[in-house]
Amino acid sequence: MEQFIAMLMTIHRLVVYLIMVPPILQHFVPVTAACMGAIALLLMGLWLYLSRLLATRLTPIFYDIKPLSPLQKKQLRQQLLDQVKREVAQVTAQPERLALTHLPHHELPWNGELRVGQKAVKLTLTRHLLEAFRQPQLAQRLLILGAAGAGKTTFLMNLVEAYLARSPADSDQPLPILLNLSSWTRECLSFEQWFLIELKGKYGLCLNLGQDWLKTQQFLPFLEGFDELDPRLQGSCLEAINRFQKMFQLPGLVVCSQPEPYQRCAVPLNIVGTIWLQPLTLGQVQAYLKAIASKHPQGIAQPPIWQTIHKNPQLMRLAQSPLLLHFLLVLDPPCSVNHAHELLTLYLKKYLGRDNFYSVSPHAPEPQPSQTLHWLSWLARNLQKHGQSEFLIGRMQPSWLPSQGQRRLYRIGVGLTAAGLVGTIAVITNWISNLGITSPVFWGTIAGAIAVFPHQISFVETLSWSPNQARRGLILGLWQGTVASFCLGVFLVAIGAVIFIIDPIYLETIEAALLRGSILSVVIIFSTGLMGALLTGWLGNPIEHQTFLNLGIWHSAKNTLIFALTGFGVGLLLTGVFSSIANLFFNLVSSVVSIPLALRILYYPPVVLKTGIMIGAIGGLIVSISCLQHFILRVILWYNGSIPWNYDRFLRHVSQRMLIQPLGRRYRFTNSLLRNYLARSYSSASLSSSKYSEESVMGSKNT
Predict the structure, then answer these.
(1) In the sheet where 219-224 sits, what is the strand order?
(2) What is the DSSP letter of 459?
(3) Of 230, 140, 144, 245, nearest in space to 191 by CA
(4) Which of 38, 80, 220, 436 is most buried, judged by most C-beta within 10 A?
(5) Which residues of 472-505 are buried (b: 16+ CB within 10 A; e: fewer)?
(6) pLDDT for 384-427, tens place per residue?
(7) How many contiguous H segments (helices) and E segments (strands) does the chain have?
(8) Sign, Cα dihedral of 575, 580, 583, 588
(9) Radius of gyration of the chain (CA)
(10) Strand locations in 371-523 (E)
(11) Residues contacting residue 357 through CB under 8 Å, at least 6 positions apart
């Protein structure tokens, strides 16, 4: 035993001598120290890169869930169905949707033709639409084509509503799923993965459960927004949809698009039936206005409106679009406009008027219309840029920052804040244990390095335990601990070289530091492995309820405390075990080599307690990093004027003005035409803080 211990100490001594620099460099200690610092940074980068590389290989897109009983699956199915029903009810409850369906006998206010091959069938009533949809020759597969504002979304929602009304609640009919294709922005992502990720993001459905239901033909997708895709991706998207429906033998499929983007694609959809939405006829417009006037004698659709529209060819052309017809009706009296963008400008001016609606919060001033328009324009541009049709506050990402400089500022802010928080905890523990001030710098640097590394902002809302995922986390944690220990060892050797250059008499201290580093490396390896298992073993529920805007953020903050306590317990356990091993080891080697008292103190109970606290702080940081990142991102966006400080209140403010629509925690613009107009017409340059003039923004005719 004594020979083995002596051999270990000899190896430590040889390692120190092997990395010694030539004597000529001993006069350049600052340069050497700088080189050692550079080596430390390179090793930190190597650790982050290797950890991220292994994480991408060990962390699958599909996570395990607990086995579900038939009753649980039935309950989850009903929860998902209820979400779809609420979404359809909320969309069809919009004023323009209600106006377009309040005709006698619920007649559809559009010209719709169902084409099967060369045969065209006129559609008039909703029941006829559903009957045609369920014809064997169509197999519940439809392509809906229509110009912007022609009523594609209204048509789609009416179809889903009729489908749900005719399907018994306890039946095994496929579940209608409403998704927007605009988020399919990467050709390398398979359509199956995109579909399941969208299910998870929109309805909170667990990925594995979604995949299981997809394989058993329990979904009937209703897809819109194909024309919002990047034109370079549209052809690939159609091919992916064809492969998707063939692979999983979907029980049905509905796709909406404008005609031009679809017709440009070389490969058509494998769908037999096509519904073409034509402009309204003059007779339909007149009948619609009369129906509205009869239902609302004091409302907006008085007989003179038809006379005004009928005498103006430009207004008549605009009125043939169901959506633009609604915009015309809210202008009382209808103004003479020549283009759709002029109509939208007047529509915004009307709905942003401060006297038309009550205040969201009586204790807070409402934003000026120009300020509201600027914030809406920023939101519309970013939704369009990132291929999203719906907005959730907690899903804003650093890519939403307008410049590279602001993204760098964001990363620096996150890193400094994390380092400050963890460093403060270390200072407090040092003050209690009276152990010096070097540890806060060490722990703060680790926290800053973890935080500054790019992360996708996502929140841990609900928790359940998965043994398989815990095993993956254990492997990943052991790997990260091994790499970190290697980097720590090289760093300690490099520091030892610098100390030896300064004064060789500290060689014994260097050896003691290396011995301590060896023990600390074992602690790091096993603690990161156990922490990885505990942190990644927790998964979300099969379906996460989405009710309030900031619910995910608050749930994530609560779960931070759980993980911090877990890390605290793991730290105490591991450091306690290995401190006992270290003390036993010191007792063995004390007969061969003298161990400095300073090294023994490092494994005493107060230090063990402090290490457990700091490991708990790092564990809490890992899972709360999204909360911190989200806060820093919101602060930067608020500071540069892109968003208001209270985003929740602002979204409720504009939803009451019927410009955006709440869907649970999500928001979407009432129609894509309005969203695209805001994104295109009001740039950040024209709405800078120095030009917040209500007259210049709301009174001008934007082109």
Answers:
(1) 119-123, 111-116, 273-278, 141-146, 253-257, 219-224, 175-180
(2) -
(3) 245
(4) 80
(5) bbbebbbbbbbbbbbbbbbbbbbbbbbbbbeeee
(6) 888 888 888 878 888 889 888 888 899 889 888 888 888 888 88
(7) 26, 11
(8) negative
(9) 32
(10) 464-465
(11) 656, 657
Alpha carbon of 653 to those of 244, 344, 365, 366, 647: distances in Å? 40, 19, 11, 8, 10
pLDDT tens digits along 158-191: 888 888 887 765 567 899 999 999 888 765 568 8
Listing DSSP states for 569-598 in one string gives: HHHHHHHHHHHHHHHHHHHHHTTTSPPPHH
Other CB atoms within 10 A of residue 397 CB:
15
Q: What is the pLDDT of residue 46?
A: 52
Convert 615-644 into a string of H (helix), E (strand) and C (coil): HHHHHHHHHHHHHHHHHHHHHHHHHCCCCC
**Cα separation, 454 vs 401, whole angstroms:** 14
3-state secondary structure of 494: helix
Give the global pTM. Answer: 0.67
CA 201 to CA 193: how far, in whole Å? 12
Asked whether 649 and 550 are in contact (CB, 8 A), the reply is no
CA gap 506, 150 in Å, rounded: 82
Q: With contact defined as beta carbons under 8 Å apart, do 675 and 373 qualify? A: no
For the chain, domain boundaries: 70-280
Per-residue model confidence as pLDDT tens digits over 580-606: 666 666 666 555 555 555 455 555 566
What is the model's pLDDT at position 594?
A: 55
CB within 8 A of 339, min separation 6: which ones? 314
Question: Which of these, 473, 582, 607, lies nearest to 530 by C-alpha position?
Answer: 473
Q: What is the pLDDT of residues 274-333, one digit of tens each?
A: 888 888 888 888 877 777 666 654 544 455 677 777 777 888 888 888 888 777 777 765
Average pLDDT over residues 45-57: 48
Tell how strand 111-116 and strand 119-123 pair up: antiparallel
Strand pairing class (175-180; 253-257): unpaired
Q: Which residues pair with 146 in a beta bridge?
A: 277
pLDDT at 99 over 60: no
Find how far residue 165's CA is from the centre of its chain: 33
| The two three-digit tokens of residue 438, written as one number | 């070097």
Q: With H, G, I as helix, E, B as strand and everything else as coil, classify residue 664.
A: coil
Q: How far is CA 102 from CA 287, 359, 406, 410, 528, in A?
A: 11, 29, 49, 50, 63
Q: What is the pLDDT of residue 77?
A: 86
Q: Give the containing element (helix H, strand E) for 698.
A: helix 694-698
Q: Return the structure tokens found at 150.
A: 């022609």
d(CA 611, CA 45): 24
Torsion of CA 502, 505, 506, 508, to 10 degrees: 150
Instruction: List pLDDT tens digits, range 108-119.
Output: 455 556 666 555
Beta bridge partners of 538: 465
CATH topology of domain 70-280: Rossmann fold (3.40.50)
Angle 563-567-569 from CA coordinates, rounded to 5° = 115
557: exposed, middle or buried (Cβ count in 10 Å: 0-12, 13-18, 19+): middle
- Work out the pLDDT band at 534, boundaries 50, 70, 90: low
> Where residue 697 falls among pLDDT bands split at 50, 70, 90?
very low
Measured between alpha carbons, how far is 253 from 4 in angstroms, rounded to an integer? Answer: 72
Element (H, E) at 486: helix 467-502
**Encoded tokens for 395:** 């899903």
Got the DSSP string for 419-448? Answer: HHHHHHHHHHHHHHHT--SHHHHHHHHHHH
Q: What are phi and psi of 338, to 5 degrees?
A: -110, -20
